[in-house]
Design a protein that fits this description.
Blueprint lengths: L1 H22 L14 E2 L2 E2 L2 E5 L5 E5 L4 E8 L5 E3 L7 H6 L6 E3 L5 E2 L3 E4 L2 E4 L8 E2 L12 E6 L2 E8 L10 E9 L4 E10 L3 E2 L3 E3 L1 E2 L13 E4 L1 E5 L12 E2 L11 E2 L10 H6 L3 E6 L8 E6 L5 E7 L3 E5 L22 E6 L14 E2 L5 E11 L2
């Protein structure tokens, strides 16, 4: 009888544990315990933001990454509209930029070199002979210190030492994610330094607004508020020019399908970019209230509007996703399963004297602002 009672107690305990574990799942189906480990002695966690409208955003302090964004579609069904992984182990062991808070320098620096006060600084090389997103140990692979301010606000702090990937200066950077009640994810970036340096931060979320990343996002309708873009060479490096989009596949001033011109490789920029992987020169003039870009899924009815005080936006159409990576719910991410909309200064600005500067000096504060606003067209 005692043995039977003991077995029953164990079974009840297991069922209670399973029930408790089930309650812990986020709206997007993530288990927070799968995001708990130690990286360089620091604890990783999953932080969930919610608003009064029922929207949910999940973020991990490893790389300051957005893991999921749940928004309602035209039928009122909640959809996860960003690519990512189900566990922290995948983020650690599978190289990716999914959802990351990129630093110190988003995008590419030519041959990893730039000159600051007559000193030539050599950064690590990790992409076609250039330094991309801060190098192989950029902030997307480092730990942010997290503080949840309230149910809808998360503050992440990066303490980057002098010489971090050979960037000069002890930099303290702060990323604040705030989920507003009108279904906008408001992201602000701040940074200070004790030595002259460069900084250019962004968020690298991969959006598929249909909620089904097993299908390409080439049917999405894209608008970019830009009359010019910065062309690249065959190594994805900006040439220093600013060219007109009019009459080219780069023209999104009138909304069109992402896939309409994406395979027109007779246009050299499409060939070089393997699709779209370019920076557009925004017409918004640092006005955070003016729409920089708009992305719409005719399948779900979900629209994403992007606002920023940055001069540029990098649009990347997942050209290097190749089906080798499985994301959330075991979904394989194939080529062009997403669209990235990265607000930032232009690529390689430290080597282009006539472009907006990315230099940060002691006593000054770096400020960048990006808003991802979600609405539904029924």
């Amino acid at each position: 009888m005692k043995k039977l009672l003991f077995i029953c107690c164990i079974m009840v305990g297991i069922l209670t544990s399973c029930s408790s574990q089930q309650k812990e799942l986020t709206l997007s189906g993530l288990n927070p315990t799968n995001f708990q480990t130690k990286v360089k002695g620091k604890q990783t966690n999953l932080y969930t933001l919610k608003n009064k409208a029922g929207m949910e955003v999940c973020i991990t302090n490893f790389g300051g990454r957005i893991v999921s964004i749940m928004v309602p579609d035209k039928n009122g069904k909640m959809q996860d509209v960003v690519l990512g992984f189900d566990s922290i182990i995948n983020y650690i062991h599978t190289p990716s930029d999914f959802g990351a808070s990129i630093g110190r320098y988003a995008n590419r620096i030519n041959k990893g070199k730039f000159v600051l006060d007559e000193d030539t600084i050599q950064l690590p090389i990790n992409n076609f002979g250039h330094c991309l997103h801060g190098g192989p140990q950029g902030w997307q692979y480092q730990m942010y210190d997290a503080k949840k301010i309230n149910d809808s606000t998360l503050e992440l702090v990066m303490n980057s030492p002098d010489g971090d990937s050979n960037f000069p200066g002890n930099v303290v950077a702060k990323v604040t994610y705030k989920l507003t009640d009108d279904n906008a994810l408001d992201i602000t970036y701040e940074a200070t330094t004790d030595k002259k340096t460069i900084i250019n931060m962004t968020n690298h979320s991969y959006f598929n607004l249909s909620g089904d990343p097993s299908k390409p996002a080439t049917d999405h309708i894209l608008y970019i508020n830009a009359d010019q873009y910065t062309p690249v060479d065959s190594t994805f490096m900006t040439t220093g020019e600013m060219l007109q989009v009019k009459g080219t596949p780069m023209d999104f001033t009138t909304p069109k399908e992402v896939g309409k011109d994406i395979n027109k490789t007779d246009f050299i920029q499409i060939k070089y970019g393997n699709g779209y992987d370019h920076n557009w020169v925004l017409n918004t003039k640092d006005n955070i209230k003016s729409v920089a870009a708009r992305l719409y899924s005719p399948v779900s009815g979900i629209t994403l509007e992007v606002y920023t005080n940055e001069p540029g936006i990098q649009v990347y159409t997942g050209n290097f996703l190749d089906g080798s990576v499985k994301g959330k719910k075991g979904i394989v991410y194939n080529k062009r399963a997403s669209v990235c909309l990265e607000t930032q200064h232009y690529p390689d600005s430290p080597n282009k004297a006539n472009w907006p500067s990315t230099v940060l000096e002691p006593g000054k504060t770096y400020n960048s602002h990006c808003i991802f606003k979600f609405t539904v067209k029924k």
